[in-house]
Amino acid sequence: MEKHGAGGKPLVRTTDDLRAHFGKLSPLAEKKVLRHLDRFCRDFIALSPFLVFASSDGNGNADASPRGDAPGFVAVLDDKSLLIPDRRGNNRVDTFGNIMASPGVGLIFLVPGINETLRVNGKAEITQDPALLTPLTVQNVAPTIGIKVHVEECYFHCGKALMRSKLWDPQAQVERHSFPTLGRIIAEQTAAISVDVAEKTMDDAYRTKLY
User: Do 149 and 183 fall within a single domain?
Assistant: First the structure.
């Protein structure tokens, strides 16, 4: 039976093994975790046009969903709560269903050009309160539902992952024509629609149904 992994270190089987493998947590990494949104967090969220929203259902099945709009589309209600308006999508409502079953969520905010990210963890609830949602109107379309996140912890994450990936480097951008369109992918994966119809449907949705 294998007892050691790469480099001769013991295999990770318990939380004690995990800490032994990675070493002691630095005091700075531990102390940087906040229980509220300070001015740096608020300013970063105001600059962010994109976030990844992680949730899970009552059985522990996980899901990560992209959310994006103009910078600052997420409203900071106070130093312990955020509001994410729901824009038009594919109506799968995975995130909403997960929140109803298990409110624990994790968010990662990104700002183009900045390698560091902001992580926010907490509990989420669904809101349909017009007083909260109407101020988030875009192109004369007011969101009718949104996600309110009660912040339990937040902290900035170092930029190593984005630096390694060169995410913001123009030279690293992939030419769009080098990968199939979503319409073609859906058509070929489902065999339920022609490529031409699928691509036209996607083009129309991108052009007329963002809000």
Answer: no
Q: Which residues of 52-80 are buried (b: 16+ CB within 10 A; e: fewer)?
A: bbbbbeeeeeeeeeebebeeebbbbeeee
**pLDDT beyond 70 at 49:** yes
Same domain, residue pair 133 and 81: yes
**3: in domain:** no
Question: Do 182 and 155 share a structural domain?
Answer: no
Q: Which of 51, 90, 52 is nearest to 202 (CA)?
A: 90
What are the tokens at 122? 């907490």
Could you tell me whether strands 104-111 and 114-127 are parallel, antiparallel, or unpaired per DSSP bridges?
A: antiparallel
Q: Which domain holds residue 191?
A: 174-208
pTM: 0.92
Helix axes 182-190, 195-208, angle to 10 degrees: 140
- Per-residue model confidence (pLDDT) at position 105: 98
Give yes or no for a contact between 117 and 157, defined as CB atoms under 8 angstroms apart. yes
50-56 and 104-111 as β-strands: parallel, antiparallel, unpaired?
A: antiparallel
